[in-house]
Amino acid sequence: MVRLKDIAEYVGVSISTVSRVIQNDQTRNVNQETKNKIWQAVKELGYIPNQHARNLVNNRQTKTNTRSMKIGWVANPIQAEINPYFAQIYTGIRDTLTKYDYTLISVTKDEIENEALLLKTIHDLGIEGLILIDRIDISLIEYIQQTIPVVGLDFYYTDKNIAVVDYNREAAIKMVVQYFITHGHREIGFIGGGINKTFEDLHAEFRFKGYQLAMEEAGLSMNPDWVINTMWKMENSYEEMNQLIKRDREHLPTAMVCASDMMAIAAMRAAIENNLRIPEDMAFFGVDNIEMSKYSSPPLSTVEIPKYEMGKMAAKTIMDMVEEKITLPVKLVLPFELIIRESSSIKRT
């Protein structure tokens, strides 16, 4: 195992300096450049500064009185606050951790992605486990897993070798398309967003894959003009739907499958402002069943995703991993169901 002496020799400083930096000792000042070099050496040499983390790696039980009982949460703070989908997941995580006397600590993506200071962040905050919603590079996750357990939420982590709590996005959208087909629709469009950093890569996103597959299995062709990549922005959904309608009003899809309720609600507004009747002229179906979907005009048909339960199961999973009740990267796939409301209720002949 790497020792403080190894780090001191690697950086060219004294062992006491290394110890002060790693222990966050404020009694004597160490300049920032030296601190960064020490934490970079910690990363490169594989030193684990967190006593609890060392016990995890060595597969030893940690005494209760040395536990921090802190779990980190990495998510876009603005997204978590304003997006009802993420807000309910967060509430499920927080409520469950609180019930078992854990504390939820917010960690920014920038703090995690600064590799030289990554272990310092974990050490200083006393984090015993990490729940990820914001997208983090997989190589970085593998590095973090050497120190503390990690649980991923949402589609970024579905196919990665980490513990995951999610639902089957592809199957959910397939079911929506099949619902429309059984109700007489053949000209079906799609509204969603991509998965890379700029959200442009729509074809790799699971909900779009579900739409593609369901259309292919039904022998229906996809009109590229009816596929809208909003990059997950409501204003884009509204504007793009406006443009679609104005571009060729005589040839419009009779149904739109939307990858989220927020995208659907924005697109419905554009349809109504262009004097289209919903669902008679164009039917809509969303995903998430956020609270406002019941109060849109007309009320939005949607896929009920167990958001609070996803948060609850993520919290239970990370606690079990921290307490070494689970050692394998479990994959928990929660169920979903269609909620039928007025936006899709007309059966076409």
TrEMBL record:
Domain HTH lacI-type: 2-58
Record keywords, A-Z: DNA-binding, Repressor, Transcription, Transcription regulation
Molecular function GO labels: DNA-binding transcription factor activity; transcription cis-regulatory region binding
InterPro entries (UniProt xref): HTH_LacI, LacI/GalR-like_sensor, Lambda_DNA-bd_dom_sf, Peripla_BP_I
PROSITE patterns the UniProt entry points to: HTH_LACI_1, HTH_LACI_2
Protein name in UniProt: LacI family DNA-binding transcriptional regulator
Organism this protein belongs to: Bacillus salipaludis
Taxonomic placement: Bacteria, Bacillati, Bacillota, Bacilli, Bacillales
